[in-house]
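Task: fold both queries, return tokens.
Query 1:
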Amino acid sequence: MKKTAPSSFLRLCIAAALIAAGTACSEPSNTSAAAVPAPAAPAPPAPLAASDAAGGSLGARITAEIGDAACDNASQCRTLPVGSKACGGPAGFLPWSVKRSNGDLLARLAAEQAAAEKKVNEKSGMMSTCSVEQDPGATCSAGKCVLQARGLGGSEAR
């Protein structure tokens, strides 16, 4: 009986591992002290560490600028796209309040963070599922801006 190296099987295993790793790495983290979501809403992603390594502590600066995201009503709440997926687009969104934060500064910090993450992704050969993160929109709940539950943002997302 002739023994052959299981190269096809090995290639399949490597491909599956790369896809799984890319998927796991492309999903936003659900640990953030920036805002506490409403019970039905998913937790906002933390600004990703890749940008922190590449460009200082941008994630911490964004979190500090968002602060407690205090609001009196939903019209004060907005979402901020953060991070960068390997295929492009934001890795997630954070809620913030026009009552407490400087929108121009947040946009600039988020753009710097996304550029830094994009650079790290390209350099490392990061892969992702190329899924598009939909802006969930934000609303005021218990005096804080929180992300809306997925599917409720629609065209009213900010």
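Query 1 returned. Query 2:
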Amino acid sequence: MRRRMLDPRVAILTRFAAAGLALLIGSAGALAQSGTPAPQDQGKAPAGNAADANKDNQRKADEFVEAQQAINGPAGNPECVWLGRRVVSLMWRDDLDTAFRHLDLYDRFGCPGGHVQAAFRCLTRFGGQIDPKVAETLSSRIHACWINPGALPQTAAASPAPAAPAGNATPAPAASPSPAPSAAPAPPAK
């Protein structure tokens, strides 16, 4: 049998291709393994997460019960509460496409659309008091507005109505109310 001689250039290219393939396979294995946590870390994480998840689930269940007791009609139903608060949250974050898709589901469950509008109106009144860096302030404010859409910020609720002057006494000049908190600044146009 006659042995075929390869061109030296082909032999070099073949060696480079084999080395490149080995490097690619080795790095793919390393990349696939880098995303998994170490085995000793896996035992510690679920214990803390399970307690947090149970606490979070209990808080959500309590919120649904609170809403059902506070709101008469379908707006207090758990599915309406969940979808409605989600719609209000998405509208606040300017994700209107997703909000409208959720609003379609909200309507399909027979939930009142006016309650979403009232809750969002309430949320806009509290705009200056919501810290965008703390997600819990937004969700708690949305829940409070869902329960009581007529809520007012404390600065507006605390100002008493002026009393009628009695007799010939001249009324004292009214104190100027403190400025209401301004809404969050609008994001720059793209």
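Both queries returned. Flag for query 2: DSSP finds eight helices and no strands in the chain.
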